[in-house]
Amino acid sequence: MKKSSRRKFILTSAAGATALAVNAKSSNMENKQIAHHVFFWLKNDGSAEDRDKLVEGVKTLSKIPEIKELQVGIVADTEKRDVVDASWAVSELMFFDTLADQANYQSHPIHQEFIKNYSGLWSKVVVYDIQKV
Questions:
Q1: Contacts of 104 (CB under 8 A, 6+ apart)
Q2: Closest Cα partner for 72 from 87, 86, 52?
Q3: What are phi and psi of 39, to 5 degrees?
Q4: How far from 15 is each of 18, 20, 21, CA to CA, in Å?
Q5: Taken in order 56, 57, 60, 66, is the CA torsion positive or negative?
Q6: What three-state secondary structure class fits 22?
Q7: What does the DSSP 8-state code read for residue 64?
Q8: pLDDT 10s digits, 106-127
Q9: DSSP annotation of 73
Q10: Strand order in the sheet with 69-74
C-alpha cells in the first residue's frame, strides 16, 4: 500500500470510528430511562378535598401506555430538616423508557384532559426531568 493510501485509509477509518462512537452515544442516551417528577402546590393550601381530587386526577395518567411506572404521593411526615421542602401538596413520579416516550406523553389526550380538568386546583407546578446515567 502506498504511503498516501495508507494515510488516507487511517484518516478515513478514524473518522468512521468517531462517527460510530458519536452515533452510539446519542443512541444510547436516547434509550436511557427518563424520570419525570412533578410537584403541585394547591390553590386552596391545606385542603384535603382538593388534594384528594388532584391525586385522583394524577392516577388517571397511568392509562397512558408510554408511562412504565407511576407513583403518586403526598408530603410524608418525616423529620423536619432545613433541606426538606414540604411546601407542596401532591407529587407524581413517572418513568419512561425513552425521551420519545416522554415527549409523546406530553401531547397524549389523557394528559391534555388531565390538565384541562385539574389545573384549576393548583397554583404552582415544578417539574424535574432526569435521565438515567
A1: 66
A2: 52
A3: -120, 135
A4: 5, 9, 10
A5: negative
A6: helix
A7: S
A8: 999 999 999 999 999 999 999 9
A9: E
A10: 69-74, 90-96, 34-42, 122-131
